Amino acid sequence: MNTSKSLFTKRTFYYIILLQETHFVEENEAKYDIGWKGKTFHSYSNSKFSRGVSILFKENLDIEVNNIKRSEDGKKIGLTLHLMGTHSPSLIYTHLTMN
Length: 99
Hints:
The two termini are 27 Å apart. The chain is built from 2 helices and 6 strands; from the N terminus they run H-E-H-E-E-E-E-E. By secondary structure, it is mostly beta strands. The chain has helices at 2-10, 29-32; strands at residues 16-20, 40-43, 53-57, 63-70, 77-84, 91-95.
């Protein structure tokens, strides 16, 4: 993650980043978020072959997360959120499902 994180933090044109096969474990969540200034959401697995996915939002991106669903196997994460447009007064409703 350190290599990926440094690439993403240097390029400011990404607003939402989706990562897969992170192999993260829940005990180290605070370490994964070091250096990333925006909101992050992770899904973990207890498998020694951990899967894992993450969603990273750019700092100052105006989102409100209403619901988070994580699959037990760490392969999926679903967010119900409101994303406010910076160039538009309208509210955008985004719903990511775990189907």
